């Protein structure tokens, strides 16, 4: 996911240059406004209020927008569409209303003057769907098509689901304030296409065409060929007296500010508007039950997940939960969604699984006493009394492997009896455990639970189990109509069950997005273990990598080439996968130095050569905490600004990002620096450990994490190594 490093305000320039530019903009705006007013005046059949709405929109025509007026709704003979407006801010489907009473929105319905006007809302949404289908053939996501109700003679700025309601003074500034999402070429192509799909409307019963065809300006005459007032159904006929002065210059105030800001707003990223056909098909698909999207790193899985969440929020009045395991990712994803689909952003909750589960339990009055340190103490004591001197030390004498066994295999999979555990297929665990070993693990688990309960605390797994117990049996009663799970391979089985319980098997309810090759936690499970049945077209794979060039993909794949993995569907996949490459830039730089000092100096030299903007698009990633602490000190002492990944929220920040491989999951950066990248790749068994199975498993996990870190890089992947001269 793009880190947005190339964005940011172009605030530079001297004060006098800025003042000069402001004066030039003001002059231009006045001219455009006068011309728009004159053109709108020619629409004789329209009311004064409607003419003022039209003037605001015609003004945009001088600034790269195209207005199509009074078009026929495809597939119908009689129904019309008031206006289609296509411009840098996207595609807007506009219905102009000339109501005496102000619009009211309550309970998701439209009313005015005490009467229901909801048929207007429904019709506008239906036309918007037709426009979405039309632009989909050009690769445009439905999130970029926005329905808008414009009210002549009213002051309004409100939302009704995905529909924006704007008054005659508000509409121009609001549209001008939209972030740029379409370049001029796309505006032209989309407007031409929409003009073909939505042909001009000819209503035999309506008033004749306007007295004069609008003349000069960027908008072709055929784009504004009939009056907006001629066919606009109006529940009330008389508009309020004009609020503007005779020359309409009153309206200029609102436009002035928006126009001045316009130049400073950087365009939003291309993937927020355009998708490839495979991605778009998944966004708009109708699934009869739970669905899954998988695919190698960088294939746009998250991009599809975000568009899908926005699309589902547009289609319903319900809420959508977008969940990941990591804490930092929801902030970044939420920032992206707000940029790409602001109209529905407040109905999509971006949450990390555990923080959501805690809030859910709190909301249902279930006490949660999560205490990481006390739970750690409970395990240490259990290990000391029951584990350390058991047969488990024959397999691995160090406690982390057995703590993982409890966390990911027993509690993570919701196993509550020894009989279940005794015969359990321990997916993605390398050490073979015979019955006495399993008995020893179970004894350790029971000792841990006893110690934990004695301390009256919960661990992270308990939080999910408690939430699952609450949610199970209440399927369909949650606040959510849809749940999108990103990086699903990081979740435990209990976590996936919990999210499934929120929406059950409802159509378009559960979408699981992820890639088993990027699993960075031990253990695993199959979706069938969670009772989730992904069948037929509900399991989809994306294959085109949009992030990494060939060198970076090859380097990353060479790390995991020998590590075949089992994905959530149980399919075994070779480590070296076929990937369709679409991104052709990107290079791998290696720095192999004999000492830590020389290695770190090379890193600083590489970072020191970057411009502030390049630095902002860079990340230094480490496999473990001590590496992060070391490089935090090094970079800060060298005078470089550092932003810990925990604090990064997707907004551009002029600082090098620093964090762990795990924290970098789901993100991407133009430049990725991996100091000492091969230092932690275990070679052989751990010190003192007779088994190679657990060491192999650790090695596999370390390689997966390194693979994830490497595939975060778009343009440069810097790999640092420390090797004495004879090893080079
Ligand atoms: N249709 C597209 N057009 C242009 N760029 C795209 C498109 N789809 C994805 N991208 C780019 O590819 C990058 C990778 O997308 P995304 O993060 O969704 O991939 P992913 O499959 O979730 O990756 P990973 O599994 O490695 O986290 C995005 O940041 C975006 O810049």
TrEMBL record:
The UniProt entry, under PROSITE patterns, shows: NERD, UVRD_HELICASE_ATP_BIND
> What keywords does the record list, in alphabetical order?
ATP-binding, Helicase, Hydrolase, Nucleotide-binding
Q: Where is this region: Disordered?
A: 1-27, 205-243, 678-697
Q: Where is the composition biased (Basic and acidic residues)?
A: 18-27
Q: Using the record's annotation, list all stretches that form the NERD domain.
A: 45-158
Q: Where is the composition biased (Gly residues)?
A: 1-12
Q: Where are the transmembrane segments?
A: none
Binding positions (ATP)? 295-302
Q: Which residues form the UvrD-like helicase ATP-binding domain?
A: 274-578
Asked whether the UniProt record includes Plastid among its keywords, one would answer no
Q: What's the protein called, per UniProt? A: UvrD-helicase domain-containing protein
């Amino acid at each position: 996911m793009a880190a947005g490093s190339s964005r940011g305000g172009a605030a530079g320039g001297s004060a006098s240059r800025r003042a000069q530019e402001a004066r030039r903009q003001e002059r231009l705006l006045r001219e455009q406004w006068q011309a728009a007013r004159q053109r709108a005046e020619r629409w004789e059949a329209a009311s004064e209020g409607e003419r003022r709405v039209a003037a605001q929109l015609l003004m945009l025509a001088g600034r790269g927008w195209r207005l199509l007026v009074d078009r026929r709704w495809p597939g119908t003979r009689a129904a019309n569409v008031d206006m289609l407006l296509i411009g840098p801010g996207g595609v807007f489907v506009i219905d102009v209303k000339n109501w005496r009473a102000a619009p009211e929105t309550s309970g998701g319905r439209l009313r005015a003057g005490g009467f229901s006007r909801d048929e207007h809302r429904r019709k506008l949404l239906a036309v918007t769907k037709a426009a979405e289908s039309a632009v989909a053939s050009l690769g445009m996501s439905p999130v970029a098509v926005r329905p808008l109700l414009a009210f002549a003679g009213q002051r309004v700025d409100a939302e009704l689901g995905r529909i924006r309601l704007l008054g005659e003074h508000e509409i121009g500034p609001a549209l001008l304030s939209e972030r740029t999402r379409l370049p001029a070429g796309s505006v032209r192509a989309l407007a031409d296409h929409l003009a073909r799909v939505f042909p001009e409307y000819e209503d035999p019963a309506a008033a004749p065409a306007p007295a004069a065809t609008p003349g000069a300006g960027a908008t072709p005459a055929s784009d504004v060929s009939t009056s907006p007032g001629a066919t606009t159904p109006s529940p009330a006929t008389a508009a309020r007296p004009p609020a503007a002065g005779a020359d309409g210059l009153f309206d200029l105030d609102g436009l002035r500010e928006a126009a001045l800001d316009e130049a400073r707003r950087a365009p939003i990223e291309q993937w927020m508007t355009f998708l490839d056909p495979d991605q778009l098909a998944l966004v708009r698909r109708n699934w009869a039950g739970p669905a899954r999207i998988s695919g190698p790193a960088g294939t746009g899985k998250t991009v599809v997940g975000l568009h899908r969440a926005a699309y589902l929020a547009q289609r319903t009045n319900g809420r959508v939960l977008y969940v990941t395991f990591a804490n930092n990712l929801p902030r970044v994803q939420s920032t992206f969604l707000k940029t790409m689909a602001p109209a529905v952003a407040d109905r999509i909750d971006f949450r990390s699984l555990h923080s959501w589960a805690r809030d859910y339990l709190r909301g249902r009055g279930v006490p949660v006493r999560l205490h990481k340190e006390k739970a750690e103490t409970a395990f240490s004591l259990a290990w000391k009394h029951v584990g350390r001197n058991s047969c488990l030390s024959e397999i691995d004498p160090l406690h982390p492997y057995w703590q993982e066994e409890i966390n990911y295999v027993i509690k993570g999979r919701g196993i509550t009896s020894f009989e279940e555990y005794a015969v359990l297929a321990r997916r993605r665990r390398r050490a073979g455990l015979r019955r006495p070993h399993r008995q020893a693990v179970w004894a350790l688990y029971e000792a841990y639970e006893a110690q934990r309960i004695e301390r009256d605390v919960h661990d992270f797994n308990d939080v999910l189990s408690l939430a699952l117990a609450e949610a199970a049996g209440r399927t369909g009663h949650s606040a959510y109509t849809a749940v999108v799970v990103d990086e699903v391979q990081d979740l435990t089985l209990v976590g996936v069950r919990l999210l499934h319980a929120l929406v059950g098997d409802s159509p378009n309810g559960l979408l699981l997005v992820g890639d088993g090759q990027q699993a960075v936690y031990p253990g695993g499970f199959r979706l069938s273990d969670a009772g989730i049945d992904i069948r037929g077209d509900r399991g989809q794979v994306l294959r085109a990598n949009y992030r990494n060039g060939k060198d970076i993909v090859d380097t990353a794949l060479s790390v995991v080439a020998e590590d075949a993995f089992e994905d959530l569907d149980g399919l075994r996949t070779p480590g070296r996968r076929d990937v369709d490459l679409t991104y052709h830039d990107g290079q791998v730089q290696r720095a192999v130095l004999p000492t830590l000092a020389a290695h770190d100096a090379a890193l600083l030299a590489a970072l020191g050569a970057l411009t502030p903007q390049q630095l902002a698009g860079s990340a230094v990633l480490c496999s473990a905490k001590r590496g992060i602490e070391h490089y935090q000190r090094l970079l800060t002492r060298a005078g470089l600004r550092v932003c810990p990944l925990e604090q990064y929220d997707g907004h551009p920040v002029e600082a090098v990002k620093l964090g762990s491989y795990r924290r970098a999951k789901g993100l991407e950066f133009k430049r990725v620096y991996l100091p000492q990248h091969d230092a932690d790749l275990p070679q052989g068994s751990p010190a003192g450990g007779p088994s190679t199975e657990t060491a192999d498993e650790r090695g596999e996990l370390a390689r997966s994490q390194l693979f994830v870190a490497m595939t975060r890089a778009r343009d440069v992947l810097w790999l640092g190594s420390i090797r004495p001269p004879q090893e080079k």
